[in-house]
Amino acid sequence: MGVFDYNRRSTLTVNVGNVPMGSEWPVRIQSMTNTMTDDVERSAEQCLRIVEAGGEIVRLTAQGVRQAEAIGMIRNSLRAQGCDVPLVADIHFNPRAAFAAAALTDKVRINPGNFVDPARTFQHLEYTDEEYQAELDKIRETLLPFIALCREHGTAVRLGVNHGSLSDRIMSRYGNTPSGMVESVMEFLRVFVAERFYDIVISMKASNVVVMVEAVRRLVKAMDAEDMHFPLHLGVTEAGFGEDGRIKSAVGIGTLMSEGLGDTIRVSLSEDPEKEIPVARKLVDYIASRAGHAAIEGDYCPGYDPVSPPKRATRLVGEARTPLVVASCDRDLITGALRPDFFAEDLLDLAEPVLVITPDNANIPGSLLQQLHQLEAQGNDCPVVARVKYDDSDLEWLQVKAGADLGPVVMSGLVDGIWIDAPECESQDDVMRIAFGILQAARLRMSKTEFISCPSCGRTLFDLQTTVKRVQAATAHLTHLKIGVMGCIVNGPGEMADADYGYVGAGRGRISRYKNKECVGKDIPEGEAIDHLVALIKQHGDWTDPA
Ligand code: SF4
Question: Which atom, in ligand 1's list, is nearest to the CA of 455?
């Protein structure tokens, strides 16, 4: 198989309850409840809705032993109703909850950033080699009884690293980087492997798609170097909602799946969890449809690093000096701020030649990338635009297909523009928004406010969906900002990682506001919180009045 061919990475099989996972099996689709886990009845009902939508695995948060035990009750309730979906306990900061869940659930997710280590201080701490080793010894000491319990009960484990919730120890040596995420999980993996426990699935998530993609690519390289072949769980965390959430997920997850990575996926949306399933299904089915495509001959151009490719195109068109968007549509239909840089016919009028490449294989990104690498190797110095045509009229399909096809292409750093040709779409504005959304997801061109909102879970302290919409209504014109809306203070501040401002649940009816990672207002009554957020943005000179 050539480097541009679609071919699943070979992995071990891990059984999660009755669902086998790994390269021998279809990519599994999962979601997470957002009910209070100790509300057994409502949680079981939501699990059933996720399963009815097509979810194959359901995760629930377990803040403590009580919630871990509730998952056991939810499992009994589901089994009594004839539903045998595997249940996963999601653990942060509380090994005792993980021990309880190991006996009562099908898989336990632990976060290497906080399983043993306390909450991050966000201060730069120095560790001597002895202090660093002492922490590793403590991790091993805590993991050994956990591994024994999982082995005894046939329970699988997910090691789930999140950008922004790395331990102070990892931060001291690697920073909040993809390399830090990789080392965070490798420290744990080495303990599991030494104990010959292999029922492990790994995730590396970030709300920043570029960071997430690079972290997973680096992880695979690190595991290969140590002869480890564990399945991967893919997801873009805090992806948001609606079109942006779908495009971000399609770009991040789709880019990695195009490289044959990923054995289970979760599309995290700030919506009802069952809404995530059809999006994930589309993504999985679309990528799987590439299997058996005609071989694509070719290699990467000299000097190209697939693990950490250049972050942006180097050969640019026009004044904007950012990747451009082309529309092949009636210009009378285009209105608003998201105008394309060029219409198809305008390309012909340019003084300098622009190359337009189109796929000639069922593996669309593979075909486009092969052409880009070939052009690069031949020393091409003309701008290149990748054009893909879709016959879909359904917008969700277009978001998923275009995100998954063009995500890997724009993230290669070798293309200067994208051209989505979607003649069946009713509104060309929709097509334009999707194209700009893809560039924004890849952090190549920011054209709107970036909302980093968590999907909510049993820790959420307010109605997240309504709140996200209210924050969006107040700040959507601030196109230069990234704004986090997070359900809880336990994980929220870390996981909104690179947000400029944050709105974080601090207690029932109480909000904290953040400037970057610093809390600058605690216990604000929920009813006043958006005004306080706006005031904070004004105070830092980042506010402009809506046009
Ligand atoms: S940030 Fe959101 S999804 Fe993450 S643990 Fe808190 S409430 Fe749950």
Answer: 3
pLDDT in tens, 347-398: 666 667 788 899 999 999 999 999 999 999 998 878 888 999 999 999 999 9
DSSP assignment, residue 528?
A: G
**pLDDT for the residue numbered 308:** 87
| pLDDT at position 334 | 44
What is the C-alpha to C-alpha distance for residues 328 and 72, in angstroms, rounded to an integer? Answer: 55
Q: Distance (Å, rounded) from C-alpha 87 to C-alpha 100?
A: 14
Smallest CA separation from ligand 1 atom 8, residue: 457
Mutate to test the pocket of ligand 1, among 63, 163, 453, 491 (most ligand atoms within 8 A of CB): 491
CA dihedral of residues 157, 454, 250, 189 (deg, nearest 10): -20
Q: Is the pLDDT of residue 335 over 50?
A: no
Q: How far apart are CA 310 and CA 407, in angstroms?
A: 14
pLDDT at 328: 57
Give the position, in ligand 1's atom list, of the atom nearest the Cα of 490.
6
Q: 219 alpha carbon to ligand 1 midpoint, in Å?
A: 24
Question: 526: which DSSP letter?
Answer: G
Q: Give the pLDDT band (50/70/90) at residue 241.
A: confident
518-519 and 19-21: which strand pairing? unpaired
pLDDT, one tens digit per residue, over 99-125 is 999 999 999 999 999 998 766 665 667
Choose which residue among 37, 454, 489 to substitute to test ligand 1 binding: the one with the highest number of ligand atoms within 8 A of its C-beta. Answer: 454
The binding-site residues of ligand 1, defined as CB within 6 angstroms of any ligand atom, are: 454-457, 459-460, 486-488, 490-492, 495
pLDDT for residue 182 is more than 50: yes
**3-class secondary structure per residue, 198-225:** CCEEEEEEECCHHHHHHHHHHHHHHHHH
**Atom 3, ligand 1: which residue's CA is nearest?**
456
Contact indicator for 385, 341 with CB cutoff of 8 Å: no
d(CA 214, CA 216): 6
Residue to substitute in 165, 465, 486, 504 for testing ligand 1 pocket (most ligand atoms within 8 angstroms of CB): 486
Tell me the residue type at 468: V
By the 8 A CB rule, do 149 and 197 touch?
A: no
pLDDT tens for each residue of 130-143: 999 999 999 999 99
Residue 540 structure tokens: 């830092």
Nearest to 367 by CA among 383, 387, 382: 387
Q: Are the CB atoms for 494 and 475 separated by under 8 Å? A: no
CA distance 292 to 52: 30
- Which atom of ligand 1 lies closest to the CA of 457? 8
